[in-house]
TrEMBL record:
This is Polyprenyl synthetase family protein. Keywords: Magnesium, Metal-binding, Transferase. Gene3D superfamilies: Farnesyl Diphosphate Synthase. InterPro entries: Isoprenoid_synthase_dom_sf, Polyprenyl_synt, Polyprenyl_synt_CS.
Amino acid sequence: MNETEHLRDQLQLRIDQFLIEHETILARIAPDLATFSTYSQSFLRGGKRFRAIFAYWGWHGVRQTLPGVAQDDAKALHTILGVGAALEIFHAAALAHDDILDNSDTRRGEPAIHRRFEKLSADAGWRGDHAAFGVGSAILFGDMLLSWSDELMYTTLAGLPESAAAPARAEYQQMRTDVTAGQYLDVLEESAWFGHSDEELIERARTILTYKSAKYSVEVPLALGASTAGATPAQIEALREYGLAVGTAFQLRDDILGVFGDARVTGKPSGDDLREGKRTLLVALTRRELPEHERPAFDAQIGNPDLGEDEILALQKLMHDTGAVAETERIIAESVAAGRAALADSTLGADARAALDALAVHMSARSA
């Protein structure tokens, strides 16, 4: 077992421990809340754990540079695992809400949370609109996970010296604002894109990917983890530069997979982002290169939930033919190179630099 797999296993144990503790709390309130426990435990199993892994390597990279610090300190490891687990619970909450906003049926090849609650209602023969029950319950489920992520994060950070806890809390709080703002801008863009110039659409798409994903997925977890270890301003700056660049590449790869990904690998139907009307950088670049008379037809297809396989294939071909895919791949490659260069020039520990370098390559070239 390699170090990343071992870290994922340790994170899973930490998450499971937290959820089991809260299963007991929910059971004392009412038996009907057992569904929340069951769904949270299944929804939080597996996954890539990128955010927790980046938090760990930010932490580890700083600790490697501190004189007289034992690298196998069990208490310190427990702390960073708590931080990572809190980030993963926050991410699960965001996914539950995101699937409602996107009207997605699946997540990682399994029913989305609102679809699980909808089926629960239908199978039990409860009165009322089963779909509405599913959405309402999933919103509350996501809210519960958000409160749990806060609880775990702040309880964990309370065990640190205030000099480390304060900047870590600030990172986490800013992340919550950034990702919510980015998510709203993403929803807004599906309706408010019309009337903007091509260059404005490209800039708006970049802003969305920065705040909805790049900072939240890579930059902030790195800075948060490093803060808990007492990072210097220079170390934080290097991690931010790496994190924003690699986070950009991560999201752009996600955008490509949302259009071209294999459903058997991604767990979501191929072309799902096109049906949902995601105004990604890939879409903006495609539109910019289209002749004026072809744009109305293109605009009408982006966000059409009834797109068939042939129409998806035609849009995929258009994205290739306009050069939008090649341009996106170029930006990904440049972003990864910039991130790796920032890391190479940093004062972080060698093990962390090697691990983060490998993660930059993996995240930009993944298939799911």
